[in-house]
Amino acid sequence: MFTKDDIKVEHHPNSGIKAKVYAFEDFQRNLMAATSDPLPNKKPWLPFKSRLEFEVAQIALEAALNNDQTDRLIKICHQCAIGNDKFTFENHKDIHRKWDAASQRVTGFMKEVISMTYEDKSWDFEVYYLDLWEWAADLLRDPRLFPHLTFDAQRLSKFDGEKFVRFIDEPYTADAFWDLQSQLPEGAKPLTFILYADKTKLSTSGTAKAYPVVARLANLPTDICNGEGIGGGYVVGWLPVVKEDKEFAKKPGWVNFKNKVWHQAFLRILASLTSKSKTGQWFECLDRLSRWFFPSILILSADYEEQCVMSLTRGVRSLWPCPICLVPRDALSDVSTRYPLRTSKDSQAIINLARTKHTLEEREKTLKEYGLRDVDNSLWLIQHTDLHFRDGGLFDDHLWVEFQKYLNDLGRDVVSHIDKRFKEFPRWRNQKHPNQVMDIAFTDSSIPENISKMILYAAHDVVTEEDCPLGYLLLRCIRLYIEVDMYASLEVHTSDTIREGRNVVQMFSVFLKQYIDKTADIEDKGWNFPKLHMDAHLFDDIEVKGATRNYNMKPNEKMHGSLKDSYLLQTNFRNVAEQILRVNHWQLIAEDIHRRLIDDDEYLRLQTQDQFDAADDALDATDDAVIPLAGLFHVKVGSKQPPLTFESVENIYHSDDAFSNLRIRLNDFLNDFLPAINIPLPQGKRIRLRASDQITEFRFLQVNYESMVDWRQHTDYLRCSPQFFGAPRFDCVFIRVTPTKVIFGCLLFLFECTVGKHTFPLALVHPYDAPTGIHLRKDKNFNLFRVQARTRAQSQFFSVRSIICGALLVPDGPSDYLVVDTVDTDMFVCMREMHLEAGHLCFFIKSHLIAPPSHSNISLPSTSSSNYTLQHSPSVHPSINQALVNIDVSTTVMYSW
User: Fold this and answer.
1) What is the DSSP string of 630-662?
2) Looking at the whole model, is its pTM more than 0.70?
3) Of 226, 344, 347, 228, nearest to 296 (Cα)?
4) pLDDT value for 884
5) 365 contacts: CB under 8 Å, gap ≥ 6
6) Is the terminal CB of the chain with fewer CB neighbours within 10 Å at N or C?
7) Alpha-helical regions (H) of 329-411
């Protein structure tokens, strides 16, 4: 018999590993272990002469010191040098020689010049690349990375009490990895690469450009693969940027020439994998097992321009602009219809057919019919490779630009109102907070993403259905777009979430079509562009490649910043590619040595640890301050303030009704709370705190909770402070009131109160659980979850251990608040469940996410089963009624209009 939350792991049949079921608490990714843990290197700083010299060189590298600054630093170090380490550097050249010597530890760059001809004129292009196989071999040899590598495809599923439900996260849990291993000889292992390529401007003027290619190994977990340093993304190539030539720029063949240059250069990067992808390569791993690896490009991550180059399609103006499928140009805005997929095999066949034609005109006609170019694709030489892409930019380039028009049309007061709302928007960790959003350009690409998640809450009360019906309809489209993005961002997917995501894409498409139809006569904006169409492939890609974070471009785009810094601070602005790549390589070496030093320090610390430390730990574990509450200890208070008497607290907050009769109300709370947690009242008498008794205020709360999405531990960092970076900040939280009831509330005061031998961490909270009345039409249309605050005089005490996690709420009137469900995927999933529990008949897709584990501290109240049906409305645009027919009924609740 299986227990709820059990995890089943099925390995690919070619692996020879039997399926196994794990209890949830015992499950972990299969970690391979080397024969023994390697002992730290006695001199991990080599080839530097001492640790001191390495750390000085590392500081100079991290700070991007130029040669003169480095020489001055060395001079200062000579003047200050004491101790056992000798400092032998004389100038920056000595440091450079050491970095070059250390660079031999990992695979380095090669340079090659490729000569290309167009219309009897020749060009030479420099391409820098490293041996991709040797780069991967460096990772395979790393004892810290090897235990995390996965070489066999897996299918994971979780028992929901009735059946095992498959879930997908890492690339090796998705279909492409499984299918790839099925194509290999028995016993062979896929070695899978993720490649990213994108041009970037190095100088603010845009005259200096870079074209880096970044590689990641998809056999590693995404947390490592998307990280920095060893195991993360690494620049493996530097492609030439073909400058426009006025003589040829307008000629049709010039674009083909630029594509040929790209693929000839990219072929140099792939060269070490081409033969191995067909025959495989044996490699002895650290566990002393030889494995037969077949390298493959599993994922290509790029924006649309690079997608067209990689797939050799003709771009947005061609008959078939999509690099993935054969969707007609005039049907890009419709994602409800499926079109045949492009494949490497089909593309090769079409190009070969075109080359049999006798004239150039006939050849071009054949190629245009499929939107292809007459160029040999470098990726065809890698066995088992088909293209995958993910692109963004729909909101900031289109939806946001369009919505700003309506805001501006509503007048200056509305524009000011929107900026004011953004300025007042509550802060949240890791969310950027633009104070002004109207009529300004953004250089930071992450700002529009944050605007997209906030604009609904800033504009819903000024862009109304009565005053601005088209703006209102567009705002509904934006809401659906964000829901698509939230589903796409889930770190773990099931067949249900994928189906739900497809349904939301469908609804976004039909609402946008309604908007397009209604505005066709009043504006000339075209909506048939590839970025809109890409969502048609979004959830197919998740099934095939895993969660979108596996191929998200953000970690790669982040690396552009380091390259730009190197250009500005560590080059002479001539022949910069070689200089930048050398610094990039040194940075990787520095990370490797630094990590070895940390390992060495940790090893020595463990070796010299004495028994007194263990005794101290045991003493701490019996500290009377730890309250024996049921469940896991998941909260921690911080930012401790000086002790205050109850009298002082009541005087400070005398004008705030929330603190009225604070001490008396706390007496009542403690007299009920202590017996409820099986702690006897002191001397068996009711607690009567005195005005002179002291409490200790805290202004920070760290809450660990188990995610409803990936079931890992996540952490919220919450504030309860009258002055945090110049402004008050009192965060909101989920609070478990009873085993079956969860409410929202706002932190007002965090403190510790000592009663007898026990110290209790408590929170004064303003509860947001007053009745909200009828579910507003606007809330239904926008999927808004509204709560209402009680009066501040009805504030309540809670143990901080009743706090589940943080929540972001924005005010909407004197006592109403709206829950922001777009801050992260966990909040998005949680609010879906709460919508259902509240019985909202609103416009959204029913959540069938695997329930959180039974021991999770954020499990929500069980919902009553309801039979939902689709209802058509005669007043709704016909395309929406038609979409309802296409929606998967098994995952849909009633739609309200």
Assistant:
1) SS---EEEEEEEEEEEHHHHHHHTTT-GGGTTH
2) yes
3) 344
4) 42
5) none
6) N
7) 344-354, 360-368, 394, 400-409
